[in-house]
Specification:
Number of strands: 0
Number of helices: 67
Largest sheet: none
Strand content: under 5%
Length: 1167
C-alpha cells in the first residue's frame, strides 16, 4: 500500500505510559516487544528512508544474532554513559528514549545518530515486529478493517495501527502501539508516506534536509514545525506565503492530530518547551493533551520563553483550522458534535465543518437554545474561546484583514487580549476608521468566542473589571451572564473604574450587533422571535439576518403592539427593556441609531464626548437631522417617554428623588409615563440634584418637539388631536389648539365639550408643566430671549423664575416680549392654576384656606385671606405682586372685568379710546372707576369690586398704579421711611396726605387729592382713620351701615357735638381730615353742578350746608310773596293796553314788538 490510511481524530490516550515509564517486561506482550527490540540491525541499503544515507550500512559492524544491546555499540557508548542512567542500559527502548529526548544543547555523535535512526526504521518495518503486532493485536486488527486489509511483510500494519491507536480498546495492544508511536514520531521520515507527500514542499520551503549529512536527525521535528508555520502563513495570506500541496496539507494536519494527546509526540514543541513544562506544568501528567492545555494557559506569562510561546501559538493556529488537532476538545465533544450534527466527513482538513469556529458556533447555538451539552465539552469550549480572545493571531481572518489597523493603532499590545480590544475600540469608531472586512472579522471572532455568556472568557475585561465585580456584582455567581448586565448597570457610577468602562463598552458594541451574543435575551426571546420576527428554522451559524434586525423587531412588539397575539411574552419583554436600558448609555450600542445617524453625529455632536451627550445632542437637533436618523431618534424618544428607565444615566442621577418620592411608581414597573411625571412634579424638591434636574428639564424640552414624545398626553389625547388638531405635530401647538377648543366650548356654554374628559385632565397637567420653564413655551422664549440676556442673565431657568423676572421688569421689556408677557398674565389671571410661582409659593396656604375653591377662584380666595394671621409671609408677598399686576389693567382682573362690564364703556370710554390693543392701561381704567365710585354712580356689582380695590390700595400704595407712577419721586423724598417698611399699612398714603402742601409734582398732588375725595365716600378707604376711630364707630355709629359716606358723616356729627367725647386719636385724625378736605376744596373746586352737589352730599358739614341753602330758599320765597301784588297790577295794565291796540287794528311792526317785549317782562316778573 503506497499511502497510509487516514483516520478520524480520536487517537491517543496511551503514549503517556511509554513517555514516563520504561518497559520493564511486566507481561508477555511487553517481554516480546523487548525481545524484538534486541534484534540486530539490518543493513540500511534497502529501500526506505535509510537508503539515501551514504555509508549507512557500511558504518554498522556485524552483531550477534540474539541479545543485541544498543548500550554495547561503541559509537553510542560515550553518549550513553554521559546522558543515560546505568539501569536503563539493558533495555534498548529505554536507551532510545533517553537519547532521543536529550536536551537541545546536548550533542551526540553523528554515527550514533545514524545507528539510532536505522534501529528505529528496523523496528517499524521488521516482519518480526509485525508478527508481534499480529499476535498482540489480533482482536483489534479484525475490528479495524483498514489494518486487516494491509499486506503483511512490508511494515504497513504497524503504521496503520499507530494511525488508529485512538480506536484501540485492547490494553495489551495499546501498550505495544503506544511504544511504537513514540518511536515513529521521533522523526518525520518514519511517518508512513509523509516524506513522499511533502518532499517537494520541504525542499521549496527550505524546511530542512533529508540527508543526515546536512541536518541533525534529532532536529527533524523542526521540519514539521516549518511546514506547520508555512501552512499558517498560507491561511493568513501573508506576503510571500508558499502554497502547500493539498496532500501535504493533509499529512501535516494528520501529524498534528496524531500528536495531540502527548506533547512528547510534537518533537519541535517538546524540545522548545521542555524547560517551560518543568517551570509551569511540573505536576501535570502527560497524556490526553493536559500538558498542551497547561502550557496554553501560561502562554503569556513573563517567564515563558519566546521559542515555546511561538511553538504554542503555531499549534493553536492549527487547532483553529481543525479542532481535531486538540485531543481533549475532540474527545470531550465527540458525542455532542454527532448529536447536534456539527461535524461532517471531509477530506479537506480546513473544510468548514472541521474549523474550530464552526464547532464553537454550532455547540454554542445548541447551548443557547437550551440543549444539553455535557459539562466536559463546555469546559473545553470555554478554554478555547478564552484562547481566541487572548490571542488575535489565532484568527487568520483578523490577521489578514486587520493588518493595517494593528500596525496603525495596536502595535505592541499583543498579549492578554489587548490587541483585540484595541481593534474593538477602533471598530467602535473611537480611534479612526476601520476596514469593513476587519469589522466583519472582529464580529465573527466575538461570535465564536461568545464572551457574553461568561465574562471570564475575555481576559482583558476580567482583569480590568475584577475590582468592580467584587464590589458591585458580588451577589452574582462567578461566570453568570448577568455579570455583564450588572457591570452595565454600574457604568458611569462611582463604583466603575475607567479601564473597566472602556473594555466593557468595547465588548458591548459587538454584542449589541448580534442578539444571540446575549444568552439570556436569546433564551427568553427565541420563541417570540420565531413567532413574531419570522426566524423559523434560521441557521444559527449564518448571517441571514442583518445586524440588529431581530432586536428591532422585538422592541417594536414590546411597546407598540396592541393585538394580544402580537405582544411579547412577559419574560422576553423584561429582557428587551434591560437591553434598551443598556443601549441608552451610549449611542454606539444601538446599531440602527449609529448606522442612520453617523453623518449627523459628526455634523452636530462631534464635541459631545461625555456619557449620554450624543443622544441628547441628536434630540436637541431633531428638526435638523436627516429623515432616517430623525425617525430613529424620534422612535427612541417616544419609547423613553413611555419607559424613562431606558434613560439609565438619568435614572442614576435621579435615584435619591425616585427613592423618596417616586419609589411606588418605579417599583410597579408599569410603563405608562408615570415615573417621568413624578420626577417633573418633584423637580424642585431639596433632594433633587443638579444632574437629575437638568436631565428632567432636557426631556421636557425634547417633549415639546412632538406630542408623541409625551406618552401620557399622546395616549389620552391621540383621538382628540386627530379630530380637532390634524396635521399639528409640535406639542406646544397641540396644547394651544386643544386648550383653545376647551376655552371656546366653555365660554359658549356648549352642551357637550369637544375635548374628551381624559384629554382635558392630561391637558391641564401639560399646561401646568409648561408654565414651569419659559423654555417649554418656545414662542415666548424666542420673543424674550434678548430681554432675558439683558435683565435676567443671572436667574436660573425652572420654577418659573425667569418668567417672574420678566414680569417684575415688565416696563423695561421690548415691545414684542412685553406683549407676550401681558398675554401670559391675562391667561394666568383667568386660570391661576397656570401661575406656577403662585401655586408653588402658596401651595400650603391654598390647602389651608382654599381647599374647597375651584381652580379659577384660587387667587380670589387667597386675596380674601391675605391678612389672616395664619397666612405665610412669602405667600402674602406673592399675592401682593399679583394684586399689583391686576390693578395695572382691568383686563388682568377677570372678576372686576365681569362686574364692571357695563360701567367701563359708560364712564371710561375716553381712556379706552386712547389705548391700543397691545398696550397696557397702567391703571387708568381702574382710576376712572374709583372716581365714579366716589361719585356713587357705579352699578352695585362694580361698586363692590371697586370698594375692595380701594380698601386694598389704601393699605398699600403699590396697588395703585397711577399713584405709584406719579408719586414715586415724592415718596422717595417725603416718605422714604414709610415706604421702606416691610409691612404696608397705609402709612405711605398717610404721609402723602399730611405732606400735601409740600408735594411739588402736579400729577402726584392730583392723585393725593383723589385719595382724599375717595376717602369721603367710605371710611374703609382711609385705613389710618378707620383704625384710629374703630372704637368710636362701634359706640357712636354702630347702627349706621357702611358705605356711601354714612359712617364718615356720623363721625363728623359726633365731632361737632360737644356732648360726645371721641377718642383723642380719632378726634385728631378727624380734625386733620377736615383741614385736608378744606384745602382740597380750595385747590380743586367743583368742575360742575353735579360735582358741586356731590361735594355737598359727601361733605362732613353736609347738614350745615343744607340748612344754609334751605334758609336762603325760604327768604327768597317770602320775598316773592311780598312782591306778588305789585306784579299782578302791572300785568293787568299790560293786558288792557294790548286789548286797545288790537281794537284800533294797528298793525305797525314797532308797536307789535313793543307789545311783545312788555308781555315778556310781565311774565318774567310774575314768575
Amino acid at each position: 500500500m503506497a499511502d497510509c490510511i487516514r483516520v478520524p481524530l480520536l487517537l491517543l490516550s496511551i503514549c503517556i505510559f511509554s513517555s514516563l515509564h520504561p518497559i520493564r517486561g511486566q507481561n508477555n506482550v511487553i517481554a516480546k516487544v523487548a525481545a524484538n527490540a534486541d534484534l540486530p540491525l539490518k543493513p540500511a541499503g534497502g529501500p526506505g528512508p535509510a537508503a539515501g544515507i551514504p555509508g549507512a550500512g557500511a558504518s554498522l559492524p556485524r552483531r550477534r544474532s540474539t541479545g543485541w544491546k544498543l548500550a554495547e555499540e561503541g559509537v553510542c557508548r560515550e553518549d550513553l554513559t554521559r546522558l543515560c542512567p546505568k539501569h536503563s542500559w539493558n533495555n534498548n527502548l529505554a536507551v532510545l528514549e533517553c537519547l532521543q529526548d536529550r536536551k537541545e544543547e546536548t550533542e551526540i555523535a553523528a554515527e550514533c545518530n545514524h545507528l539510532l535512526w536505522n534501529y528505529k526504521l528496523n523496528l517499524t518495518t521488521d516482519p518480526k515486529f509485525e508478527s508481534v503486532a499480529v499476535e498482540v493485536c489480533k482482536t483489534t486488527i479484525s475490528e479495524i478493517k483498514e489494518c486487516a486489509a494491509e499486506e503483511l511483510g512490508k511494515g504497513y500494519l504497524v503504521s496503520c495501527l499507530v494511525d488508529h491507536r485512538g480506536n484501540i480498546s485492547d490494553y495489551q495492544c495499546n501498550q505495544y502501539i503506544t511504544k511504537m508511536t513514540t518511536i515513529v514520531f521521533s522523526d518525520y521520515r518514519l511517518i508512513c508516506g509523509f516524506m513522499d507527500k511533502c518532499r517537494e514542499d520541504i525542499n521549496t520551503l527550505r524546511c530542512g534536509s533529508i540527508s543526515t549529512g546536512e541536518k541533525d536527525v534529532h532536529s527533524q521535528g523542526e521540519v514539521i514545525a516549518c511546514l506547520e508555520k508555512a501552512l499558517v502563513r498560507e491561511a493568513e495570506e501573508q506576503q510571500g506565503a508558499h502554497p502547500i500541496k493539498d496532500e501535504c496539507k493533509r499529512s501535516i494536519m494528520r501529524v498534528a492530530e496524531l500528536s495531540s494527546d502527548d506533547f512528547h509526540l510534537d518533537r519541535y514543541l517538546y524540545f522548545s518547551c521542555r524547560e517551560d513544562r518543568e517551570r509551569f506544568c511540573e505536576k501535570t501528567l502527560a497524556g490526553e493533551g493536559r500538558v498542551y492545555k497547561c502550557l496554553f494557559n501560561h502562554k503569556f506569562e513573563e517567564a515563558m520563553t519566546e521559542r515555546c510561546r511561538e511553538a504554542l501559538t503555531t499549534r493553536q493556529k492549527l487547532i483553529a483550522q481543525d479542532y481535531k488537532v486538540s485531543y481533549s476538545l475532540a474527545k470531550a465533544c465527540k458525542s455532542d458534535l454527532r448529536k447536534y450534527h456539527c461535524s461532517a466527513d471531509s477530506n479537506m482538513p480546513r473544510a468548514r465543518e472541521a474549523r474550530l469556529s464552526y464547532l464553537l458556533l454550532c455547540l454554542e447555538s445548541a447551548v443557547h437554545r437550551g440543549r444539553v451539552v455535557i459539562g466536559e465539552c463546555q469546559g473545553e469550549m470555554m478554554d478555547y474561546r478564552r484562547m481566541l480572545m487572548e490571542d488575535f493571531s489565532l484568527s487568520p481572518e483578523i490577521v489578514l484583514h486587520c493588518r493595517a489597523e494593528i500596525e496603525g493603532h495596536c502595535s505592541g499590545l499583543h498579549r492578554k487580549g489587548r490587541t483585540l480590544h484595541c481593534l474593538m475600540r477602533v471598530g467602535r469608531g473611537d480611534a479612526g476608521a476601520i476596514d469593513a472586512n476587519c469589522q466583519r472579522a472582529l464580529q465573527t471572532l466575538i461570535q465564536e468566542a461568545d464572551p457574553g455568556s461568561d465574562y471570564r472568557i475575555d481576559r482583558a475585561l476580567n482583569e480590568a473589571c475584577e475590582s468592580v465585580i467584587q464590589t458591585a456584582c458580588k451577589h452574582i455567581r462567578s461566570g453568570d451572564p448577568m455579570i455583564l448586565s450588572c457591570l452595565m448597570e454600574h457604568l458611569y457610577t462611582e463604583k466603575m473604574v475607567e479601564d473597566c468602562e472602556h473594555r466593557l463598552l468595547e465588548l458591548q458594541y459587538f454584542i449589541a450587533r448580534d442578539w444571540k451574543l446575549d444568552p439570556i435575551l436569546y433564551r427568553k426571546c427565541q420563541g417570540d422571535a420565531a413567532r413574531l420576527c419570522h426566524t423559523h428554522r434560521w441557521n444559527e451559524t449564518s448571517e441571514v439576518m442583518p445586524p440588529g434586525a431581530i432586536f428591532s423587531c422585538l422592541y417594536r412588539h414590546a411597546y407598540r403592539s396592541v393585538e394580544q397575539g402580537r405582544r411579547l411574552s412577559r419574560d422576553c419583554k423584561v429582557e428587551v427593556q434591560r437591553i434598551l436600558h443598556q443601549r441608552a448609555l451610549d449611542v454606539k450600542l444601538d446599531p440602527e441609531l449609529q448606522r442612520q445617524c453617523m453623518t449627523d453625529l459628526g455634523k452636530w455632536c462631534s464635541e459631545k464626548t461625555e456619557a449620554g451627550q450624543e443622544l441628547e445632542c441628536l434630540q436637541d437637533h431633531l428638526e435638523d437631522l436627516v429623515p432616517g436618523c430623525r425617525d430613529v431618534v424620534g422612535n427612541l424618544t417616544e419609547l423613553e417617554s413611555e419607559d424613562i428607565q431606558i434613560e439609565a444615566l438619568l435614572m442614576q442621577a435621579c435615584e435619591p428623588v425616585i427613592q423618596t418620592f417616586c419609589h411606588e411608581v418605579a417599583d410597579n414597573q408599569i410603563n405608562t409615563g408615570d415615573l417621568m411625571e413624578c420626577l417633573v412634579q418633584n423637580k424642585h424638591q431639596k433632594e433633587m440634584n443638579e444632574k437629575c434636574s437638568v436631565g428632567v428639564t432636557h426631556f421636557q424640552l425634547i417633549q415639546i418637539k412632538d406630542f408623541r414624545f409625551s406618552y401620557k398626553f399622546k395616549t389620552a389625547c391621540k383621538e382628540d388631536v386627530l379630530k380637532l388638531c390634524p396635521n399639528i405635530k409640535k406639542k406646544v401647538d397641540v396644547v394651544i389648539c386643544l386648550s383653545t377648543t376647551v376655552r371656546n366650548d366653555t365660554l359658549q356654554d356648549a352642551k357637550e365639550q369637544r375635548v374628551s374628559i381624559k384629554c382635558r385632565k392630561q391637558l391641564r397637567v401639560e399646561e401646568v408643566e409648561m408654565s414651569e420653564d419659559i423654555r417649554l413655551e418656545p414662542e415666548l422664549y424666542d420673543s424674550c430671549k434678548q430681554d432675558i440676556n439683558r435683565l435676567c442673565q443671572n436667574v436660573a431657568f425652572g420654577n418659573a423664575q425667569v418668567i417672574e423676572c420678566l414680569k417684575e421688569n415688565k416696563w423695561q421689556l421690548t415691545q414684542r416680549c412685553h406683549q407676550r408677557i401681558f398675554k401670559l398674565q391675562e391667561v394666568e389671571m383667568v386660570d391661576p392654576e397656570l401661575d406656577y410661582q403662585l401655586m408653588r409659593v402658596c401651595k400650603h396656604m391654598i390647602r389651608r384656606f382654599c381647599s374647597e375653591s375651584e381652580g379659577k377662584n384660587v387667587l380670589q380666595c387667597l386675596k380674601q385671606n391675605k391678612n389672616s394671621e395664619l397666612m405665610d409671609p412669602k405667600c402674602k408677598q406673592m399675592i401682593t405682586k399679583r394684586q399689583i399686576t391686576q390693578n395695572t389693567d382691568y383686563r388682568l382682573n377677570p372678576v372686576l372685568r365681569k362686574a364692571c362690564k357695563a360701567d367701563i364703556p359708560k364712564f371710561c370710554q375716553p381712556v379706552l379710546n386712547k389705548a391700543t390693543a397691545d398696550s397696557e392701561l397702567e391703571g387708568q381704567v381702574i382710576a376712572c372707576l374709583k372716581l365714579k365710585y366716589a361719585d356713587q354712580r357705579l352699578s352695585p356689582d362694580c361698586e363692590a369690586q371697586i370698594q375692595v380695590i380701594l380698601q386694598e390700595s389704601a393699605l398699600d400704595y403699590r396697588l395703585d398704579p397711577q399713584l405709584q407712577i406719579q408719586c414715586t419721586p415724592e415718596i422717595s423724598r417725603l416718605c422714604s421711611e414709610e415706604a421702606a417698611a416691610q409691612e404696608q399699612t397705609g402709612q405711605v398714603e398717610e404721609c402723602l396726605k399730611v405732606n400735601l402742601l409740600k408735594i411739588k409734582l402736579d400729577g402726584c398732588k392730583k392723585e393725593v387729592l383723589n385719595m382724599l375725595k375717595e376717602s369721603k365716600a367710605d371710611i374703609f378707604v382711609d385705613p389710618v382713620l378707620h383704625t384710629a376711630c374703630a372704637l368710636d364707630i362701634k359706640h357712636q355709629c354702630a347702627a349706621i351701615p357702611p358705605g356711601r359716606g354714612r359712617q364718615m358723616s356720623c363721625l363728623m356729627e359726633a365731632l361737632q357735638d360737644k356732648r360726645v367725647r371721641l377718642q383723642p386719636e380719632c378726634k385728631k385724625r378727624l380734625q386733620d381730615r377736615l383741614e385736608m378736605w378744606s384745602y382740597a376744596a380750595k385747590v380743586a373746586p367743583a368742575e360742575g353742578f353735579s360735582d358741586l352737589a356731590m361735594q355737598v352730599m359727601t361733605s362732613p358739614s353736609k347738614n350745615y350746608i343744607l340748612t344754609v341753602i334751605g334758609g336762603g330758599v325760604a327768604v327768597l320765597f317770602v320775598m316773592g310773596l311780598l312782591c306778588g301784588r305789585f306784579t299782578r297790577r302791572v300785568t293787568q295794565q299790560l293786558k288792557d293796553r294790548c286789548h286797545k291796540i288790537a281794537e284800533s287794528g294797528g298793525d305797525q311792526r314797532g308797536e307789535k314788538n313793543h307789545f311783545l317785549k312788555v308781555k315778556l317782562v310781565a311774565v318774567s316778573q310774575s314768575r
